[in-house]
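Quick note —
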Amino acid sequence: MFIETILYTATATGGRATASDKVLDAQLSTSLELSDVEYPGTNPAQLFAADYSACLLDALKFGANNLKITQFRTSPLPARPESAKSPQASLLQPN
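Predicted structure written out below.
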């Protein structure tokens, strides 16, 4: 698979992460676990976790659409690893 069109770009410099479309403009900081001082802003691990969960949801929606699964719900369940063990964690409901 080759990237044919670049849809989004972002840069991180000087403690800020900014998307090319300016929708994201976040002050970055070191996580409290890695520093004894709490700084304002979000740490890169939090941004990665948010991005990963959003990408996973998009991939599930894409897969559901390809499988002709019409009932796809976004659950109010928290997106935490332990919630995947719950029987209510299913996002796909076959017809």
